[in-house]
Amino acid sequence: MQTGSDRKVKIAVRGLDLFYGDFQALKSIDMDVAANKVTALIGPSGCGKSTFLKTLNRMNDLVENVRITGSVQLDGEEIYKDVDVVDLRKRVGMVFQKPNPFPMSIYENVAYGPKIHGIRKKADLDEIVEHSLRAAALWDEVCDRLHKSALGISGGQQQRLCIARTLATEPEVLLMDEPTSALDPISTLKIEDLCESLKQDYTILIVTHNMQQAGRISDKTAFFLLGDLVEFGSTEQIFNKPKEMKTERYITGRFG
Amino acid sequence: MRNLLDRELQQLNGEILRMGGLVEESVEQTIIALRELDANLAQSVIAKDDLIDSMESRIEKHCLNLFALQQPLAGDLRLIGASLKMLTDLERIADHASDIAELSLRLVGSPAGTVPADVFVMADKTRKMLRSSLDAFIHQDLEAARQVCDDDDEVDDLFNSLILDRVNAIKADPRKVEVSIDIMFIVKYLERMGDHATNIAEWVTYNVTGQHGHMQHPEQHPERDRLIGEPD
Ligand SMILES: Nc1ncnc2c1ncn2[C@@H]1O[C@H](COP(=O)(O)OP(=O)(O)OP(=O)(O)O)[C@@H](O)[C@H]1O
Ligand SMILES: [Mg+2]
Predict the structure, then answer these.
(1) Fewer CB under 10 Å: which end of chain A, C or N?
(2) Is the pLDDT of residue B1 over 70?
(3) What is the ipTM metric for this complex?
(4) Taking the model in full, what pTM does it have?
């Protein structure tokens, strides 16, 4: 199994197995996630992409009967041993497939995380909110209604708000699970542009069912199938000449 | 799954082969026209060039549509990309066949033996290269593609010796200058046809392996280069 070889590895996964009860959803995954790169996770529904993403910030801990073995290191630290979960979730932020803004104002949505992490001064919060909304390419669209309900903006705006909310806690890694699956092409492109500009500061993993999107935004692509990491390589290589027949069949739409 | 794309790809394949067949026919006929100095045949090669040009633009459009509408990846992407590139090479070969036909027209009426026998040896090898490159495409055959590239070396050698031969002929008898220049052009067009056949073989290799290595050997021909400038 290839692990890829980039200069700086942000997350090193080795021999990762995950069971939901008796069902093995991830099978001995080895992967080096390169720092400041966008890594796309692709594969058919149910192959374990979301499960894998969630192991990286221990969201699976909440699931009953889940059993995880193997090693996941963030900057060399074992996240299932050495790292406090709250601290981990601050460092590894997640954006879900469906935008899930809190039922409060736009401002409060973004300020929520920093407040929990102890930031109280209004001036500081104002600055974080503006900075995060700008980084998520949403500021211009909402700056005149920051104190209106977040539920009153469009789906694409909500998704970018959720990204802003995640950025506000200054994570190092951004996990995005199909962040554009419900968005129109313009909002989609905004989020894609965002990935490109954010990768200077963040390491990004994105699950997508859209091959063209994976091609547009990612540096590396990982193809999962039935819990196996079948192929992991540069996006250019995967979309031009995959090494594995299974990958070829999947990305050319000839599966099943 | 992807029945539609598969059908389109099959159709594209058929279009390329039909065009390849026409180009081959042009090359064969231009060689005969040159050997027999047959003006009618030469004219029909020239006339066919328009048909081949319009085929090229139709297939080109088909490829671009497939890119736009089907967003092909991996093997599909390579096949359409390689087809698009091959098209240009096929069209150029046909152009050169027509160029040679025009020169044949100028030679009509010259005495037998005006065109040296080696020109026909070279023409025949070039024609075979085209045939093999199309076979390599049909069967996605790397070995056949490799062979085309090797054959190109022989064609290049014949080119060099024919050019030197013409230079000497001109020196020996300056009255032969015009005919010799026509023959030099013919030889040059044949050499370019060989290069385009080699390109086709290289696109087959790319389609199969994902790697487009230039297989033409970077050779040095100081004598030729001094006489006629750098090959393009
Ligand atoms: N909480 C759970 N309990 C039991 N099985 C689960 C649970 N979550 C996921 N699974 C199973 O694990 C496998 C992987 O699920 P996962 O959600 O990771 O797939 P996915 O690749 O993200 O699919 P999709 O593209 O549809 O989102 C599936 O077979 C799924 O049914
Ligand atoms: Mg999922």
Answers:
(1) C
(2) no
(3) 0.76
(4) 0.84
